[in-house]
Design brief:
The chain has about 140 residues and is mostly beta strands. It has strands at about 5, 20-25, 40-45, 50-55, 70-80, 85-95, 105-110, 120-125, 135-144. The chain has one domain (about 25-144): Immunoglobulin-like (Sandwich). The protein has a four-stranded antiparallel β-sheet, with no helix packed on it. A three-stranded antiparallel β-sheet has the order 3-4-7, with no helix packed on it. The chain is elongated, with a radius of gyration of 18 Å. The N and C termini lie far apart (about 40 Å).
């Protein structure tokens, strides 16, 4: 990571307690996390919805931080043939929970379905450690 002159803690008012010094720049050099960075593969199998996430472009964990609490939020809503929501779930991917995505290694998930499902709406959002806002990374709709 390139070195920049900054405060160790960016969040106000804690940032006032630290002097500026040379620290590693934790911003992604290629910009924000986008659809090209995190790949999802999905499969409906009988009463299960199986999916995997893959960090395919960032050569370290995503999200990453020694300080703060950056997170990826994965929301999945399941719909029946009438278009009604029958189930939903949320996964949090974060270094503090030891669930950050390793570079080029799939993280697999299996979710049991109890109702007939024909569609899954999937949303991935990123929340940097210094922000309360969640930025949309991508949205997908998958049909059985």
């Amino acid at each position: 990571m390139p070195r920049i002159k900054s405060r160790l803690t960016q969040k106000f008012p804690l940032s006032l307690l630290h002097k500026k010094k040379w620290v590693g720049n934790h911003k992604f050099l290629h910009g924000d996390i986008t659809e090209k960075d995190i790949l999802i593969e999905v499969e409906f199998e009988e009463n299960f919805f199986n999916f995997s996430l893959l960090n395919k472009t960032v050569p370290h964990r995503v999200p990453t931080a020694d300080n703060g609490d950056p997170r990826l939020y994965l929301y999945i809503t399941f719909l029946n043939a009438a278009g009604e929501q029958v189930d939903k779930n949320k996964w949090i991917i974060a270094p503090q929970q030891d669930t950050a995505l390793l570079f080029n290694k799939k993280m697999n998930f299996n979710y049991r379905l109890f109702d007939p499902v024909v569609q899954a709406n999937i949303i991935l959002k990123y929340q940097p450690a210094w922000s309360k806002e969640k930025d949309l990374v991508w949205e997908k709709t998958v049909r059985r």
